[in-house]
């Protein structure tokens, strides 16, 4: 047992996304999403987009892990672990099947009413990401999603619809998942729904940088409008952003490496964060746009909305750190399909090439809180690994326990020693789900094992891993008992 480092009202829970675990892709009036058009890949191969649904091919999002039919069973398991909060997203195409529909789909709205009611029955707060890596594919085909200003109105109508519907059931809202990731060269389809000619490799689909930052601007305006709407709908709403925080270290103490690290931190992490917290573009962003010759469509009205729609809390994902250098021989690449940078020789690496850096989370919490002074949540964090199910149904995942254990220790230190206002922690994929980058099931994050393989074969039965029992103990002790046999 350790001393209590976490506040008594700290919100422990877990995180998921509709497109990776919900399934029911063509049930209940749901339309086709951008995620629904993707085939599975592997740990070395990005998932691929097909422009039409091909017979005989496996599309992982179509069934997910079947939360659509098993949500009561899953929520009961979350309650058994003691969850205080559960992060989930609303599938846009379950509410507006084409994205530009005149009226919402009542059957879809009713589904989420039932999910929220089930969570609240167990005293679990929903933490809802309004849009998480999933857009109506119809909008990709007709306006190329976030390449178009029209998306702002489509998104805000969707956001207003769900916030109005669930205003008495949901308090915590996140506008757009990992909003800054759209500026990364290979994330334009996954995070922005943008197509690029006839290319069909989603995670390697290259889109011009100017278009990506234009898409980011439209998303930032849409997010600000949603925040403003949310505050008007229910003043008790807590409106947050969601940043894919990629923490970079200089590869060496050479001043050029330090400046290169500062550059990428600004371009990847800080432009979106600064706008969503402060309501305006920082000068370094304006200089960056000018230096690169970006002629972005930014109107005076946009700037007003950005100022009016600042967030109440700052949330982010954290999985690994990377190093930056101007030197040619600065180590291996990060091991992530879309993230620039190199590996750190002082860190261990997961089976998927992501480096494990618990102390980096404490460093990141201090960096972010020092910059913004807002309440914070770590809404994604975890270890993707191969799990083996034993004949008796047990899964011994001490490696996952060790990973999360160390990250919790560093969060506790950030709170108690550094004064960071951290209010919640929702580890990613609290139940096994489909990988966002590759479409695999082998890359498992959960405390709950789902019997499903990379080809969609399996019983979908749920099994408790050792980490299930351990995390239950962590929550019961409010982070004071991290021990495991």
Automatic annotation (TrEMBL):
One of its GO terms (molecular function) is beta-glucosidase activity. Keywords: Glycosidase, Hydrolase. InterPro entries: GH, GH_1_N_CS, Glyco_hydro_1. The keyword Magnesium does not apply. It holds the Pfam family Glyco_hydro_1. The keyword Heme does not apply. GO terms for cellular component: cytosol. One of its GO terms (biological process) is carbohydrate catabolic process. Belongs to the glycosyl hydrolase 1 family. This is Beta-glucosidase. It comes from Enterococcus florum. The gene is bglA_3.
């Amino acid at each position: 047992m350790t001393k209590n480092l976490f506040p008594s009202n700290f919100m422990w829970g877990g995180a998921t996304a509709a497109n990776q675990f919900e399934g029911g892709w063509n049930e209940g009036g749901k339309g086709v999403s951008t995620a629904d058009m993707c085939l599975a890949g592997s740990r070395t191969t990005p998932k691929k987009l097909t422009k039409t649904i091909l017979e005989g091919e496996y599309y992982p999002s179509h069934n997910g892990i079947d939360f659509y039919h098993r949500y009561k069973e899953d929520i009961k398991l979350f309650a058994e672990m003691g969850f205080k909060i559960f992060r989930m997203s609303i599938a846009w195409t379950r509410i507006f099947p084409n994205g530009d529909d005149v009226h919402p789909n009542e059957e879809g709205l009713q589904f989420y009413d039932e999910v929220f009611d089930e969570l609240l029955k167990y005293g679990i707060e929903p933490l809802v990401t309004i849009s998480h890596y999933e857009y109506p594919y119809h909008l990709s085909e007709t306006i190329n999603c976030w390449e178009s200003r029209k998306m702002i109105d489509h998104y805000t109508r969707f956001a207003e619809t769900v916030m109005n519907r669930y205003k008495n059931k949901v308090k915590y809202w996140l506008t757009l998942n990992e909003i800054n990731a759209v500026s990364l060269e290979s994330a334009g389809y996954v995070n922005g729904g943008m197509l690029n000619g006839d290319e069909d490799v989603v995670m390697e689909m290259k889109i011009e940088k100017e278009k990506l930052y234009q898409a980011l601007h439209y998303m930032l305006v849409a997010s600000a409008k949603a925040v403003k709407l949310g505050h008007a709908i229910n003043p008790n709403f807590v409106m947050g952003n969601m940043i894919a925080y990629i923490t970079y270290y200089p590869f060496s103490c050479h001043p050029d490496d330090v400046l290169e690290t500062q550059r990428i931190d600004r371009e990847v992490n800080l432009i979106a964060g600064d706008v969503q917290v402060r309501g305006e573009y920082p000068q370094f962003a304006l200089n960056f746009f000018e230096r690169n010759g970006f002629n972005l469509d930014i109107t005076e009205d946009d700037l007003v909305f950005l100022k009016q729609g600042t967030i109440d809390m700052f949330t982010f994902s954290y999985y690994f750190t990377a190093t930056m250098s101007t030197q040619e021989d600065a180590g291996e690449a990060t091991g992530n399909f879309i993230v620039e940078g190199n590996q750190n020789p002082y860190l261990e690496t997961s089976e998927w090439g992501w480096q494990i850096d618990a102390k980096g989370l404490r460093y990141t919490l201090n960096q972010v809180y020092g910059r913004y002074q807002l309440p914070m949540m770590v809404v994604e964090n975890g270890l993707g690994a191969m799990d083996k199910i034993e004949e008796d149904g047990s899964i011994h995942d001490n490696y996952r326990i060790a990973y999360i254990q160390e990250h919790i220790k560093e969060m506790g230190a950030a709170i108690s020693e550094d004064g960071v206002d951290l209010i919640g922690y929702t580890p990613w994929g609290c139940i096994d789900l489909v990988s966002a980058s590759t479409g695999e099931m082998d890359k498992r994050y959960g405390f709950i094992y789902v019997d499903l393989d990379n080809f969609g074969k399996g019983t979908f039965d749920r099994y408790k891993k050792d980490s299930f029992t351990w995390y239950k103990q962590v929550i019961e002790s409010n982070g004071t008992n991290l021990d495991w046999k």
